[in-house]
Specification:
Elements (H helix, E strand, L loop, with lengths): L4 E7 L14 E2 L2 E2 L10 E7 L6 H14 L3 E5 L9 H8 L5 E7 L4 E8 L4 E9 L6 H19 L8 E6 L2 E6 L6 E3 L6 E6 L5 E6 L7 E5 L5 E3 L7 E7 L6 E7 L2 E7 L5 E3 L8 E6 L5 E6 L6 E6 L6 E2 L11 E6 L5 E8 L2 E8 L5 E3 L6 E6 L5 E6 L6 E6 L5 E3 L7 E5 L8 E2 L1
Parallel strand pairs: 4-5
Antiparallel strand pairs: 1-4, 1-6, 2-3, 6-7, 7-8, 8-33, 9-10, 9-32, 10-11, 12-13, 13-14, 14-15, 16-17, 17-18, 18-19, 20-21, 21-22, 22-23, 24-25, 25-26, 26-27, 28-29, 29-30, 30-31
Helix pairs in contact: 1-3
């Protein structure tokens, strides 16, 4: 019989605002960017108070997810097999906790999770989690979703643990969980495959497939593998697909000898053209979260720059100001989930770096500065960006927290390109 157990997480310090600091670079003599400074996040400790199969795996996943949320600072990590008694918990509680989070395993093969505000004695979150096979992806997703719920209850906004990223490596499509676990190849319609994009439901993806007849845009169901070719993409070069927030419309770039333009497919209603290149290239469409506007890259002024237009193609205008030689080619726009920011990469001294544009004020700030950094993609929490970087020596995926500047390496595969961050998956623990 499985013994009951308790996993406790004690937050030891209140939340505080991030303070300005670094990873970024110098632009026009001013240092731009922010970084993590100790003491600005809620401190926590994770403790398991009894031995029960699977509880230590839950503890480790939950602890890592809460750490990666950048709302907490993990101060105390017991060894994997350590069992901590109530005296040790009380000692941590007396240190000035803000919350206690407990995980209880029972003989029915369940873990019972309790989130408690110790100061007020209020229960903030209660859930039950089937332990099952702790190595299965479904089990890990349930723990990730639990972590997101805890972040929502304690910090006011859900985390991004129950998500995954697509990326391209060696011409193939790959998927990796947001904690870097479970890198796996996806079967695509052709090889190479490029420009992966998630549908808002998290069940479908779109990408460019190189097949014998051309480079069509393919929409693929992840569960069944069923594929649909977007009409009119049977010929020419078709790249950078992007789903609208409603999940029905798909924007993409279609190229011919006359140039590249942006089109929108609306399922059974056909394809409409939004830009007229006139021997210029218009590509990399990115929808605003309300579906009303599309950011894109255009070479109509010779150097690729960032533009925006209405979803019907009207009112096309420059979105990020021209800097006339201070920086170079602009590429890969990505609109933040709240619509306030657009991330993109732009060359600085011939080396791509990640930038963020404030849409309302049109102010641009540089986020990265070490190595080559490109192809940013937003987490659904709106505070984390994933991007491709060579700062570790090879092209891999890295994640930055824009509020603290904290960086972590997500993959170690080498040759990674074109990441796309998924929406949150809905698999959750049962609420009590």
């Amino acid at each position: 019989m499985r013994r009951a157990g308790v996993l406790s997480l004690v937050a030891l310090a209140p939340f505080a605002r991030a303070v300005p600091a670094q990873d970024s670079t110098v632009q026009s003599g001013v240092r731009i960017g922010i970084t993590y400074a100790p003491g600005t996040r809620a401190s926590l400790a994770v403790m398991r108070t009894a031995s029960a199969a699977g509880l230590d795996s839950v503890r480790a996943i939950l602890e890592r997810d809460l750490d990666h949320s950048d709302r907490f600072e993990v101060l105390w990590r017991p060894s994997a097999g350590d069992v901590v008694d109530s005296t040790a918990i009380a000692r941590v509680v007396r240190g000035g906790p803000a919350q206690v989070i407990a995980l209880v395993g029972d003989s029915g093969g369940l873990a019972r999770i309790t989130v408690m505000d110790v100061r007020s004695g209020q229960w903030l979150h209660r859930a039950r989690l089937p332990l099952g096979d702790v190595t299965a992806r479904e089990f890990r997703l349930r723990v990730h979703a639990l972590a997101d719920d805890i972040v929502r209850e304690v910090a006011g906004q859900a985390g991004a643990a129950a998500t995954a990223l697509l990326f391209v490596q060696a011409g193939r499509l790959w998927q990796v969980d947001a904690d870097g676990h479970g890198v796996r190849a996806l079967r695509a319609a052709g090889s190479p495959a490029l420009s992966p994009a998630w549908a808002p439901d998290g069940r479908r993806i779109a990408y460019t497939a190189f097949v014998r007849s051309g480079q069509p845009i393919v929409v693929q169901d992840l569960a069944s593998g069923a594929r649909t070719m977007v009409p009119t993409t049977e010929y020419g070069l078709n790249i950078t697909p992007s789903f609208a927030p409603d999940g029905r419309r798909l924007a993409f770039a279609h190229g011919t000898e006359a140039g590249t333009d942006i089109y929108v497919w609306e399922g059974g209603t056909g394809v409409s053209r939004l830009t007229v290149g006139r021997f210029a290239d218009n590509l990399s469409p990115a929808w605003s979260p309300d579906g009303a506007r599309i950011a894109f890259v255009s070479t109509r002024a010779r150097s690729p720059q960032l533009y925006v237009m209405n979803a019907d193609g009207t009112d096309q205008e420059v979105l990020a100001r021209f800097d006339f030689g201070a920086t170079g080619t602009t590429s890969s726009p990505a609109w933040s989930p709240d619509g306030a920011l657009v991330a993109f990469h732009r060359e600085v001294g011939g080396v791509p770096q990640v930038f963020v544009l404030d849409v309302a004020g049109r102010a641009v700030r540089q986020v990265t500065g070490s190595g080559r950094n490109e192809d940013p993609t937003w987490a659904p929490d709106g505070r984390h960006l994933a991007f491709v970087s060579t700062r570790g020596g090879r092209r891999d995926l890295w994640v930055v927290d824009l509020e603290t500047g904290r960086l972590r390496q997500l993959t170690s595969v080498g040759g990674a390109r074109l990441p796309a961050w998924s929406p949150r998956f809905t698999l959750t623990a049962e609420r009590e």
